[in-house]
Amino acid sequence: MEPQKAAGIESKDCIGLSDIIALDLQQAPLSPEMAAYFKKCEEKLGYVPNVLLAYSHSMAKREAFAAFYNELMLAPSGLSKLEREMIAVVVSAENRCWYCLVSHGAAVRALSGRPELGEALAFNYRVAPLDARQRAMLDFAAKMAKASAEIEDRDRDALRQAGFSEKDIWDIAAVASFYAMSNRMASATAMKPNPEYHAQAR
């Protein structure tokens, strides 16, 4: 049975997650809140993202992950949804995270309407057609992924000069940090992206 179907809203059975990650864990029963969240994913996307299924062994961890993702990526911000997805792709490229490059590359393609942008960000954002604001944002995100201890006032000043507010700078750092963590978890567990991502918005 496919993992997404096995994790269906009506099913409360514990299932193995070996088709998604390289750890032998069992899915915990869905809470009513997460069952509703999964149903919303199915209705909006047509599937449940594997990253949510990967956290299925612990309802507390899955709920915390989903809540933090929603706050960072979907809540009101001075950063657009596309900009936040662009950060996710660039950080994931620096960390060579297969899952996040595939999933967030698809999001960049869909939100921008430009398949070539998603490809450029995944391979080398420096060759992408970016405006000054986007380049400053992604330079900062890439430095966070590679050498966060080397960030200095001049790095934050570059963001201010590009038009970002203090809250925007926090959000850039928060999104980049979240994906640095997510990349490492995905790589450590050999998390597999949903097949649907590969063909989206091409």
CATH topology of the largest domain, anyone?
Answer: AhpD-like
Structural class of the secondary structure composition? mainly alpha
What integer is the average pLDDT?
A: 92
CATH A-level architecture of the largest domain: Up-down Bundle
CATH class designation of the largest domain: Mainly Alpha
Largest sheet: none
Q: Which superfamily, in CATH terms, is the homologous superfamily of the largest domain?
A: AhpD-like
Q: Could you state the order of secondary-structure elements as H and E?
A: HHHHHHHHHHH
For the secondary structure, the number of strands is 0
Q: Number of folding domains?
A: 2
- Poorly predicted tracts of residues: 1-15
Kindly estimate the percentage of residues that lie in beta strands according to DSSP: under 5%
What spatial form do the alpha-carbon principal axes imply? globular
- The radius of gyration is 17 Å
Helix share bin: 55-70%
What's a quick, concise take on this entry?
With 202 residues, this protein is an all-alpha fold. The chain has helices at residues 3-6, 32-45, 50-54, 59-73, 81-95, 98-112, 115-124, 132-147, 153-161, 166-188, 196-199.
Q: What would you note in describing this structure?
A:
With 202 residues, the protein is mostly helical. It folds into 2 domains: 3-73, Single alpha-helices involved in coiled-coils or other helix-helix interfaces (Up-down Bundle), CATH 1.20.5.810; 81-199, AhpD-like, CATH 1.20.1290. The protein is built from 11 helices and no strands. It has helices spanning 3-6, 32-45, 50-54, 59-73, 81-95, 98-112, 115-124, 132-147, 153-161, 166-188, 196-199. Mean pLDDT is 92; it is low at 1-15.
